[in-house]
Each structure stands twice: as structure tokens, then as C-alpha cells.
Amino acid sequence: xxxxxxxxxxxxxxxxxxxxxxxxxxxxxxxxxxxxxxxxxxxxxxxxxxxxxxxxxxxxxxxxxxxxxxxxxxxxxxxxxxxxxxxxxxxxxxxxxxxxxxxxxxxxxxxxxxxxxxxxxxxxxxxxxxxxxxxxxxxxxxxxxxxxxxxxxxxxxxxxxxxxxxxxxxxxxxxxxxxxxxxxxxxxxxxxxxxxxxxxxxx
Length: 203
Hints:
alpha/beta
């Protein structure tokens, strides 16, 4: 296990170094994205003016307050609470996010499935897990909402956050086929079989 401090954007080589159970702290920029954002991008053909190439996205729909545009709030939004939502239901968007927009890292909770694992392995990407219920802490890692695109979808807009020391995050799925979620499933299956055998029950 190793810890990596990664300024974004990152290269494919940066990503290929990461293995499950490593930890990562992100610096510079993180993009917030959620269901509606991706439905509009990939099902409805909308384009974003943001360059996501080599960047990380976080599955979120932040709680924000609209404020006058100023040096401290260049997008006209103040972050109130920026938590992370469950990733699984956004599984089908991983491949197009990576191939069409160049995203290399997805930050979320709960894990993703086989399609995402295959995309990470083929293209070079990782899933970075964050512990659920830590929204208040996550918000302190976001210095500013720098910009927002597709704002008609608020709060599921595409957000550009300026971040500092965002993490540590756990590498839960890597570009080598590793997945802590698959490991847990395999352990559960083995333990179940052993318990059934000890009880004399056919599996």
C-alpha cells in the first residue's frame, strides 16, 4: 500500500501506478457530476465547455447558496454541503465519460460494477472511494466553486471545484482489474460455503 499526492489533471501513467488499497489525496481541480448531468451529456447529446481530460469527477449534487459574483465566489455560488452520492446507478456512464471526455478518476461511495472495471482496465482509470456520511469534512476540502456549466440542471449541474488536500481517498478499483468490492464478494462466498459445510448443509 502506498499514498499518492496527485495534482490534477493526471496522465495514464499516473493512474497505472495505483493499486487497490493505496490511498490518494487530490489537488487543484475536481468536477462534480450526477445522474441528470450525464443523462444530458450522453443520452441527449449536450456538450460541456469544460475540459475534463485527465481529471477526476465526484458523484454529487451539492447543497449550495446563490450569492453575488465576487473574487471569493466567481461562479456566484457558495458551497454549503458537498457530499457524495452512491455510484452504482451511474454505472453505464463510466465508459463514455472516459472515452468521450477523458476522465481518469471517479470519486464516489458504494462501488461500481463490471462495466466500469473493464473500462478502468482498458483505458486507464480508477474508482476512489470515500466514506459515506463525511459530507461536512469533504466540504472543507473544497476551497471554492470556480465555475458551473449546464446550470439549468441545478443542483445536478456540472461543477468545477477548486480543491486542496482532497482526501485521503481509497483506491477501491484499479486499472489492473483489482476491486475491493469483488474481493469482499469472493470472501463472503467462501465463508458461506464453509459455514454451510460445517452445518452439514449442501451448498
